[in-house]
Amino acid sequence: MTRSATPPRDVSGRADMTTVGYIIAGGVLLLLFPLLPFIALAWLLSRWLGTEPRAEKA
Q1: Which pLDDT belongs to residue 17?
Q2: Mean per-residue pLDDT for 26-54?
Q3: Is residue 5 a part of any domain in this protein?
């Protein structure tokens, strides 16, 4: 048994906090969704132009 100053708590999930987490994650996805084409374009341009960081030879 672990020695602790606080009494043990029930560690079961809290449905209300899970719901709040899903709502916040959905809001973030809705805000970032319009930026997805620009992120994809920047990634494709970096691949096409070869501007990815490379390891230097010693």
Answers
A1: 87
A2: 87
A3: no
Other Cβ atoms less than 10 A from the Cβ of 56: the count is 5
Q: Which domain holds residue 26?
A: 16-49
Of 18, 16, 43, give the one whose Cα is nearest residue 52. Answer: 43
Using the structure block, give the residue that is written with the tokens 């501007």: 51
Distance of CA 17 to the CA centre of its chain: 18
Let me know if residue 31 belongs to a domain.
yes
The total domain count for the chain is: 1
Say which DSSP state 55 is in.
P
Alpha helices in the chain (DSSP H): 15-32, 36-49
Q: What is the DSSP letter of 1?
A: -
